[in-house]
Amino acid sequence: MERKDIGDAFSIGRRNYMKTIGGLAGASALGIGLGETSAAAGLDPNEPGILEPVKTKLSGNEVRIPGTDQVKDGELQQVVSHTSEDADGATSVRGNEITQVSNPHEDLSTALGNLADAADDGDKPAMEAAAKEVEAILTGETQGRIYDGFRLLNYSKGGDLPDHVDGEYKMKRLQDSGETKESLDGTQRTVWEVDVNMLWYGESFDADTYLLRVPVEAHPNDLLRVNYHVYSLVREELSPGTAVNDMGGLPFKIFDSTWSAVGGDEVHHISVDKPPLGLLRGIYTWGWRKHPPRIQFLQPVFETEVDGNVTLDPKSASFAVRNRSLSLDDIGDAAPEKKAHHVAYAVLEENAGPGKVSGMLTNADKKPRGTYDSWIDLMSDPLQLPPEAWDVLEEEGIERGEFGSYRYVTVYANNEMYGNGPDGADTMTPWEQRDRFEVKVINLDDHTHYYRAVDFGYRVGDDIRSAPTSLDLSGASHSFEIMNLKPLYGAPKSAEMQWRTGWGFRPHRNVVQQYDVFPRGSDSEYLSPYTDGEGNEREGYTFSSTHCQNTWRFNPPKKIIGTADDPSSQRLKEYDGTEGLLVGQQTPGYGIGKMPTGDLSDVHPRGLTNVDVDGDGEEELVFPKFLRNPADDGGDIIPPTPLWAPFLFLDPENGTLFKNGTDGSDGYRIDETYSQGAPVGANADITASMEGARAAGFVFYQFDPLFHDNAIMSPHPE
User: Fold this and answer.
1) I need a labelling partner for 662 at 20 to 30 A (CA). Which of 255, 494, 517, 537 fits?
2) Residue 292: is the preceding peptide bond cis (ω within 30°)?
3) How far, in Å, CA of 686 to CA of 412, rounded?
4) What are the Cα distances from residue 183, in Å, to 62, 66, 107, 558?
5) Residue 618's pLDDT is what?
6) CB-based contacts of 125: which residues, under 8 Å, 6+ apart?
7) For every residue of 492-526, which 3-state class applies, written as one string?
8) What does the pLDDT look like over 265-295, one tens digit per residue?
9) Which helix (H) or strand (E) holds 393?
10) What are the E-state strand segments in 646-692?
């Protein structure tokens, strides 16, 4: 069973008690992963560029990830070009000349005010004109304005810009730039590129792009270039944080690649080189002068060919299907943007009278709830809770303005996120390793959202912050530099197994750990030792809920740790010498998806990939016993390998994304595997009980992995 480790299982390792290959000395002190080759000895794993652990170990040679060296010889390494122009007179994303440079929230406030005045005057033609203005701003159809093409209502219009993929939500297909550069394998590889238009204003970063469609003809070692076109009303810095996997597919590191100044009332064109496509996990764009919540995310989705047909792989299809079907009706009525839409709709489609319209806008006791001033205030500042969220807390006996036992409260509305907490909206009480705490997650939209919390770890580089003053990287003291992302809540069960194995177990490769996962002593305090398949002593994290009746021993056979021809010398062993590593049967926040028994080839997307699992000479596709959770209601460890990863997204009973095989009315497979986070039903809420597997890092990063372009909220530990 050949394994490419995961999209959403996660890998660690730091404090290294090992039999070093070649008698390495000092690898542990440098943060070099356990069992790595002598090529890694004495090297900084983040300079020049990030040292890739898997290929380095397997090849015996130092392998750096292209596009991750931040600063060299006083120059930013990833910035290809940077030009700017005045926004007034520039061309909008819909191809119109910009004649008005203004904030859409402020313009919406003016339009709603004009509508209220017209209603008070009983002037129905003026009411209709103002309502049309409201709808134009909400839907991004505002010829002549800087935000022309950027909409405030987050739903799918099926690819409304010329370079969008038709029928999809904010999806663009990468284009061949005609250039080549040296890549991971030392050869010249194609540089693919994409244009991403962004609007920066007030507290917000909006974009016309979310899904980056990688063509089937692209090679995993091909490279990416993003051409950012930033329509900005604010003074900020472009600081894209690129997240990469390692060669085994485990989430590895994030690094800031630039800190380029962007002025207000300007349009900036900045081209930035990125790492190989096969390692790309996604790209965050931060805005630190108002952080949180100025963040936007770009998600790669990958084409694949099955039986001569080009389609998206199952994980990518999960993103595309759910986002393309996002409708206006999916946005809950609690969203302030939806409230503004309801008023405009009442005027334009229902011929509502002046009295009704005036009441809708200015009477807080009439629907939509609140007044238009309060709607504008809320949509302009996500660092607060909508009144409907306070209703949920009050039902639990928590007084308005209080937070009870919750360390933070997170809310979905308009496929965006709001947040607040007892320590303020932009901070939260930090946690030490093994601390447990609760977060309340409230979904005010009319469709299921998903919740994941990720610890970004601790800064392990300083290229940008210590760059020469000649680069004028103003604000770069806030750079994340390089760090290591790992989940705290809302990830597949295989993620917990990776925590225990030090983020390094890889079938048929034994254990290959990553660098810098536990760079501080405070991160290593509660690590537990174990031995790998070759007798090397290592450490990983064991969740405190893993004990007594909640214990499950992850105990793969020697031929899985090694290979059938060259099995490992022993099984994985706990600190006491017993076989199998302890993981929890029901650790909170990790997947509950189960696999059926028997042959699964009829529902596998590549039905001919059956393999002989049990060695009896018969071709079959049977889920191995050592991956089965002994708890009936506990999640199985579904490996993110080419063989099994489809079932993180496809229901093994019917081979579709849907639990009922036809549509999402009964839920989706991901609702059980947590491969897109823990589900939070429409107009429902959950209490997320989580445990810090490391001490507090930079941010408490919360997001909906499926609707990740806008649904982000990340307070900082104090």
Assistant:
1) 494
2) yes
3) 12
4) 14, 6, 47, 35
5) 62
6) none
7) CHHHHHHHHCCCCEECCCEECCCCCCCCCHHHHCC
8) 999 999 999 999 999 999 999 888 887 878 9
9) helix 387-395
10) 678-680, 685-691
Cβ atoms of residues 273 and 81 within 8 Å: no
CATH-assigned architecture of domain 386-489+674-717? Sandwich (2.60)
Bond preceding residue 48 cis, omega within 30 of 0: yes
Amino acid type, 208: D
Average pLDDT score over residue span 650-663: 94
Tell me how far CA of residue 637 lies from CA of 5, 149, 245, 438, 717, in angstroms: 12, 43, 20, 25, 31
Cα(434)–Cα(690) distance, rounded to whole angstroms?
Answer: 9
**Architecture of 171-324 per CATH?**
Sandwich (2.60)
Report d(CA 424, CA 427) in Å as an integer: 6
The structural domains of the chain, with segments of one domain joined by +, span: 100-155+331-380, 171-324, 386-489+674-717
d(CA 354, CA 411): 33
Residue 528 and residue 575 in contact, taking contact as beta carbons nearer than 8 Å: yes
Tell me if 171-324 shares its fold with 386-489+674-717. yes
Q: Please, what is the average pLDDT of the chain?
A: 91
Q: How far apart are the first and last CA of the chain?
A: 45
Give Cα 46 to chain centroid, integer Å.
22
| Amino acid identity for residue 357 in this structure | V
Length of the chain in terms of residues written:
718
Helical H segments across 270-386, by residue range: 314-324, 336-348, 354-362, 372-380
Collect all residues with Cβ–Cβ distance below 8 Å to 530 and sequence separation of at least 6: 500, 501, 537, 538, 539, 540, 572, 573, 574, 575, 581
221 and 52 in contact (C-beta within 8 Å)?
no
What pLDDT, in 10s, does the model give residues 538-583?
999 999 987 767 899 999 999 999 999 999 999 999 999 999 999 9
Residue 485's Cα: distance from chain center in Å?
Answer: 10
pLDDT band with cut points at 50, 70 and 90 for residue 613: low
Which tokens sit at 497?
């197994």
